[in-house]
């Protein structure tokens, strides 16, 4: 499968990059085709007023950076996306939030590529890797909840969220909860991890795992 790993930290030698590298290694070892991008190279502008920004000749977004390339050539063709990010003020970094904000310009009814983008953005398996200084659960709960809603809205599957604690560059290797191993596993099993979202009438047996011993 094709996996795109998106690094949202400006620190290319930072902690979330270490998480991204582990996920990449795991995914490649599992036989997946992995591409890794840094958001800094693609996203420089924030969402504007689409009515003012669209090019008069074809209605396309006129913001002058590489967002369209990221979305159309990299995000849409991927079967899975892994977002690697630092926690900034209990949320995702602004540049990453802009990736979602600007999706509006490509999915609105007035967008020339609406059908292609809506069709291409759905159905992906998504993993999230977060590096942050603080360890209490509430610190990352907002981001996790936002990704749960984003993926639900985009008709994607949120497969897992890995949180590691670190501040200085690279010190995430010392987190005893071993977030690098968990990131590696998420990359390797992005399409194999069990994701459920039952309704009361979902047909299912009373067992979760085939072959499990029960009493
Ligand atoms: C602008 C900014 C805001 C931050 N806000 C938080 C925060 O709210 N909670 C937290 O635990 N860490 C916070 N941090 C610390 C980073 O999340 C942490 O250093 C992380 O490991 C950096 O990842 P990186 O090396 O990939 O850039 C913040 C750091 C910066 C630069």
Automatic annotation (TrEMBL):
- The domain of life for this entry's organism is Bacteria
Q: Which SUPFAM superfamilies match?
A: Flavoproteins
Signal sequence span is: none
User: Which residues are in the Flavodoxin-like fold domain?
Assistant: 1-157
Q: Which InterPro entries does the entry link to?
A: Flavodoxin_fold, Flavoprotein-like_sf, ISF_SsuE-like
Q: Which keywords appear in this protein's UniProt record, sorted alphabetically? A: Flavoprotein, FMN
Give one Pfam hit by family name. Flavodoxin_2
Name the record gives this protein: Flavodoxin-like fold domain-containing protein
Task: Say which species the protein is native to.
Answer: Mycolicibacterium litorale
| Lineage, highest ranks first | Bacteria, Bacillati, Actinomycetota, Actinomycetes, Mycobacteriales
């Amino acid at each position: 499968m094709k996996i795109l790993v998106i690094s949202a930290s400006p620190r290319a030698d930072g902690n979330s990059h270490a998480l991204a590298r582990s996920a990449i290694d795991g995914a490649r070892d599992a036989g997946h085709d992995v591409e890794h991008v840094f958001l800094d190279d693609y996203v420089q502008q924030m969402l504007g007023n689409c009515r003012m920004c669209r090019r008069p000749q074809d209605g396309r977004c006129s913001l002058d950076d590489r967002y369209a390339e990221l979305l159309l050539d990299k995000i849409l063709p991927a079967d899975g996306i892994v977002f690697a990010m630092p926690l900034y003020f209990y949320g995702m970094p602004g540049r990453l939030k802009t990736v979602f904000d600007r999706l509006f310009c490509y999915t609105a009814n007035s967008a020339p590529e609406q059908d292609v983008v809506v069709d291409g953005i759905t159905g992906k398996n998504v993993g999230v890797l977060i590096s942050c200084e603080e360890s209490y659960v509430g610190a990352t709960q907002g981001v996790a909840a936002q990704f749960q809603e984003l993926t639900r809205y985009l008709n994607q599957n949120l497969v897992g969220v890995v949180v590691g604690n670190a501040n200085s560059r690279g010190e995430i290797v010392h987190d005893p909860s071993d977030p690098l191993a968990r990131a590696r596993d998420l990359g390797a099993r992005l399409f194999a991890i069990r994701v459920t979202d039952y309704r009361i009438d979902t047909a299912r047996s009373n067992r979760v795992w085939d072959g499990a011993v029960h009493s």
